[in-house]
């Protein structure tokens, strides 16, 4: 992440892998181009969720390995979104500002972190502890774990009040992230375009041409960013002035606890 450094915890149940798929760029998901399959049953009827599990779209390119699904139906996603809006406490003051080339700016979105007790991470040069988990975040985290078989001990929440709020190109490649762990990105609210750009294809004079990948991230969706995606690809959520509604994104991570 730009300005965010974690300091301080499988290719699971998603099923068979597809070969790399790119081309015609930027490659866009959500148009039914990507293959999908149901993963084996895992949920129990008491969960009130689809017994067959979600259908996954596989997004593959050179060094990019992601899986996408709509995890929460509209009614449940609406309910969770309302609860996030009520319960999440975002950074204020110095933590809501960022220094770029010596000048201070407001971060163009709101941010918060929650996680296991005892974890610490570095943010804007400060060592911080995440806030303790709250029920709505545990509910989302546990649903992600249920369908992926992965566990997470930390979440970064980003709130975009409308399409002017955004996040610049960055990689989630902090060395404090547990090696080999995926990042699970869950979105609620306005659908926004999310872009991946290969590290060799950035800037004015890229060393080579690699098509960018565009994914519209829908209300209630889950995007699994599996290794080695964050080694080779940058991601961003660009400005979309026509989007007037808010969006909340949660990236669940596993970070290595700091040695005492
Ligand atoms: O809001 C999003 O979808 C992206 C968030 C993100 O890039 C991050 O948390 O590193």
UniProtKB/TrEMBL annotation:
EC id: 1.14.11.33
Gene Ontology molecular function terms on file: broad specificity oxidative DNA demethylase activity; cytosine C-5 DNA demethylase activity; ferrous iron binding; rDNA binding
Listed GO biological process terms: DNA alkylation repair
Chain positions recorded as 2-oxoglutarate binding sites: 158, 160, 170, 235, 247, 251, 253
Enzyme class: oxidoreductase
Needed co-factor(s): Fe(2+)
Binding site for substrate: 101-103, 121-123, 173
Domain Fe2OG dioxygenase: start-end pairs: 151-256
GO CC, one annotated term: nucleoplasm
Catalytic activity as recorded in UniProt: a 3,N(4)-etheno-2'-deoxycytidine in double-stranded DNA + 2-oxoglutarate + O2 + H2O = a 2'-deoxycytidine in double-stranded DNA + glyoxal + succinate + CO2; a 1,N(6)-etheno-2'-deoxyadenosine in single-stranded DNA + 2-oxoglutarate + O2 + H2O = a 2'-deoxyadenosine in single-stranded DNA + glyoxal + succinate + CO2; a 1,N(2)-etheno-2'-deoxyguanosine in double-stranded DNA + 2-oxoglutarate + O2 + H2O = a 2'-deoxyguanosine in double-stranded DNA + glyoxal + succinate + CO2; an N(1)-methyl-2'-deoxyadenosine in single-stranded DNA + 2-oxoglutarate + O2 = a 2'-deoxyadenosine in single-stranded DNA + formaldehyde + succinate + CO2 + H(+)
Ranges where the record places region Disordered: 1-52
Keyword Signal belongs to the record: no
Biased composition range(s): Basic and acidic residues: 34-45
Swiss-Prot/TrEMBL keywords: Dioxygenase, DNA damage, DNA repair, Iron, Magnesium, Metal-binding, Nucleus, Oxidoreductase
Location of this chain's protein in the cell: Nucleus, Nucleolus; Nucleus, Nucleoplasm
Subunit structure comment from the entry: Interacts with PCNA homotrimer; this interaction is enhanced during the S-phase of the cell cycle. Interacts with nucleolar proteins NCL, UBTF and NPM1. Interacts with XRCC5-XRCC6 heterodimer.
Family membership: Belongs to the alkB family.
Protein name: DNA oxidative demethylase ALKBH2
